[in-house]
# Entry
Amino acid sequence: MALYAELHRHLGGSVVPRILWRYLQRNDSDLAQRFPAYPEFEDFYTRPRSTLDEYLELHTLVESVQTAEALPYFIYRLVRGAYIFENLAYLELRYTPFLRTPDHLTQSQRIDLMAEIVAIVGKASQLNEYPIVTSQILCMHSRLPYAVNRAIVDLAAQSREYVCAIDVAGGDNHYGERLDEFVELYAYARSLGLKTTGHLYETRDGAYPELLPYLMRIGHGIQIPLEHPHLLKEVAERGQCLEVCPTTYLQTGTLDDISQLKLVFDRCFDAGVDIAICTDNAGLHNVRLPFEYENLLTHNIIDFEQLQACQDAAFRHAFAWPYQQRPASLLNGLLKVESDRDSANAYEIAQR
# Structure
């Protein structure tokens, strides 16, 4: 029975290393020649990096492979693994559609092709054999010009069948010089009725309080409880949820030890700020969502009651979850109905 919700997973970082390596081998890529044996590729692909910028360079590797033709191949395996190995009932995939278009085309041609990419991802994600509720978050990007980012917002508004929200990505230390642009774009998105999240307060250089009022969720946001706890009150008042991705902070050098997350969870729980536990880049980390849960428990970062609170928060803050309850509650209801029916049948038999 699928039980969990994943709110922060990048399409570029979601491909597990062995599937990516097999694809590269079959398609005779330069990387396949560089890494003819799998163990060397896995080490290269999943080892920790020194900085967030160095870590994000791995996304460019996968983005170049995730073409319109290849996306169904990757998404089928992604959804299959999420259902079978992670027990996911709900999955939001985020990515920048412009970066899945051919880079030899003009900017306007690539913008025109973005709708096709969104449709391919949307259709490929709908698999009857693996019934997960899926939706897309389209990411603006710090490396892309204003016109492209504006087109991404417009595309999100025009593609509500597949898209539930927008985001900004590309490293939160790179927004500063263009902060007014992103404030304008988020205000524009909200005027169109779009839901919003954003990569903010992941690193110490990613503090942009000007963007916070436009967000419904905060991508990462761990530096708020760590370095800016005075903001927790207004985060709670807005009903914003932090999308915390534990393994990421060790992979990017943002934190030295997972134990540092205890303060994040403790301060958020004390302030009434919701946290959804996420994977971010399950492929780059070679981890799955249940591992993130287990790791936090075994390191005494949270207890089981707090874990359940985070799991509940994930469904409550999911942008496209169509039900009022999470799957565990729905299952309990079904089991109670079945139990009541069995009791009624037993009573009827006893009265004969």
Q: What stands out?
A: Residues 4-321 form a domain with the TIM Barrel fold (CATH 3.20.20.140).
